[in-house]
Amino acid sequence: MDKNAPIGVFDSGVGGLTVAREIIRQMPMERLVYFGDTARVPYGTKSQDTVIRYSRQIIRFLRTKEVKAIVIACNTATACALETVEKDLDIPIIGVIHAGAKAAVEATKNGKIGIIGTEATIRSGVYTELMKEMNPDIEVTGKPCPLFVPLVEEGLLHDSVTDEIAGRYLAALKEKYIDTLVMGCTHYPLLRSTLGRLMGEDVTLINPAYETARELSGLLKEKGLACSETGEGEKYQFYVSDMAERFKDFATAILPGEVKETKKINIEEY
Description:
Layout: E1 7-11, H1 17-26, E2 32-36, H2 48-63, E3 69-72, H3 75-85, E4 93-94, H4 97-107, E5 112-117, H5 119-124, H6 126-134, E6 139-144, H7 148-153, H8 160-174, E7 180-184, H9 192-199, E8 204-206, H10 208-222, E9 236-240, H11 244-254, E10 263-264
Parallel strand pairs: 1-2, 1-3, 2-9, 3-4, 5-6, 5-7, 7-8, 9-10
Helix pairs in contact: 1-10, 2-3, 4-6, 4-10, 8-9
């Protein structure tokens, strides 16, 4: 495997850009190919079988780009598909859940952890399962927040509507006196200031995007796949299944540096 090959990253839409941003920040030498499934977002309301099918199509596309490793930058796809698709692969693949769960268990002082995510992520129970394996005494409360993804995708990051909806969602978690909150969807770190303000300074917010980039960095070093030079070709490539121009504008607002081009592809062909 060529250690100067790019890393493949995929998500249901723009949320995974928070993971891409952390990879770019923490591993500036690495090349990256990102795919956002903007035609079929959101994944959180889809069945497990559908999410597995979508994930397999995207992985087949990323393999055409000769990626050396894949990051599922989507909590729903990690929860529903990671275990299935990793059996098909001969390259490293990681999701965004393990690193976030580990960070939350290490951060909590009172043993009460909250998780916000899509309906599919919360329904899967995968965060709770992982945390209980790490510490059986931990009390985990999950809360689906299905409206956060469309609010982020619409760019309503600092809006009274977002405040109102977030307040309603978070009320149930505040009643449980949690001291740690996992932002269990890669869109949610874009609402960090709102979530932090509403939960208060005594609650630690866990950003799985940051933790996943750290985990990836360690994994690539361990397998001798860390990039030693920037290599040939475009450093960062972006692909979507729809709305390329809108995605490009959003990506430029989130990532360090301008995203010059986003290409639309027909993912159903893979």
